[in-house]
Design brief:
By secondary structure, this protein is mainly α. It has one domain. The chain has helices at residues 3-26, 40-44, 49-54, 58-84, 88-97, 101-107, 113-127, 132-150, 154-186, 191-249; one strand spanning 31-34. α4 runs antiparallel to α9 (154-186), α4 (58-84) runs parallel beside α10 and α7 runs antiparallel to α8 (132-150). The longest helix is centred in the last third of the chain and has 59 residues, at 191-249.
């Protein structure tokens, strides 16, 4: 299964649940049968958020750990890509204005980002006497190394996008099994016990989607940043190699 297919599956689940929720909102009487909606005193006795969370069961604890991991990965990747971005056009203009490879290397000594690192490596090799073909192979190795760093933790984030809704559905299934087991054992004599199983089911579903949605957004954002950096780097390296070959030929 491709990564794109894996991302579509939780997205389909989200769309289906949103449609279901919109149907309930448009006709709230379905929540309470065909009668009148509960009065204000009845609503005042509703459970607090902490009471609802306690009904989540062990699956909710796992989802909580997943949310911490997801947040950690998103912060780490955001900090990395913030440092990885550089101004390609400005570096190329600075190199073109330099009188020699040595001057160009000194001019971009403080340039940030992945492009700055790769450009300095290429200019250093050219200054040390490597042939353009050799410099090109060294650049390919440096780009591959940077690609590994850019893709770091993205598979784990993609896994959380798929895993968390599935965990939520697993918790939902356990909650519904609990509810129907209560109905089979004592019938409808104790609705509070039945409501506890239903609450467990709904809490886990909401928690799974609540973790997966930010993870999905973050994964697509970081994947887009990676592609933009790679495309910009390829364009810049093409011009840089022309400059190195011209300098070597001169």
């Amino acid at each position: 299964m491709s990564p794109a297919t894996k991302r579509i599956r939780p997205l389909g689940i989200v769309i289906a649940l949103i449609c279901f929720a919109l149907g309930l909102i448009s006709n709230p009487s379905h929540l309470y049968g065909q009668g009148v909606l509960p009065s204000a005193p009845a609503l005042a006795k509703a459970q607090s958020i902490w009471d609802i969370v306690k009904h989540g069961g062990p699956v909710l604890i796992i989802l909580g750990l997943c949310s911490v991991l997801c947040l950690t990965l998103m912060i780490e990747r955001y900090m990395y890509y913030r440092k990885a971005t550089g101004n390609m056009d400005e570096m190329l203009l600075t190199i073109k204005r330099a009188g020699s490879i040595t001057d160009a290397l000194a001019a971009i000594d403080k340039s940030p980002g992945i492009a700055g690192h790769v450009f300095r490596m290429a200019l250093t090799a050219a200054r040390d006497g490597y042939q353009p073909k050799q410099v090109e192979r060294l650049v390919e190795g440096a780009v591959t190394k940077e690609m590994i760093q850019m893709e770091k933790f993205l598979p784990q984030l993609d896994t959380l996008v798929t895993l968390c809704p599935l965990l939520g559905l697993f918790g939902t299934t356990l909650g519904m099994i609990r509810s129907f087991s209560i109905v089979a054992a004592i019938g409808m004599k104790n609705p509070e016990m039945l409501a506890g199983g239903i609450s467990e089911a709904l809490v886990n579903t909401a928690a799974g989607l609540g973790v997966a949605l930010p993870a999905l957004f973050a994964f697509n954002y970081f994947a887009g940043k990676k592609e933009a950096i790679v495309m910009d780097l390829e364009r810049g390296l093409t011009e840089l190699m022309v400059i190195i070959e011209s300098s070597h030929g001169g």
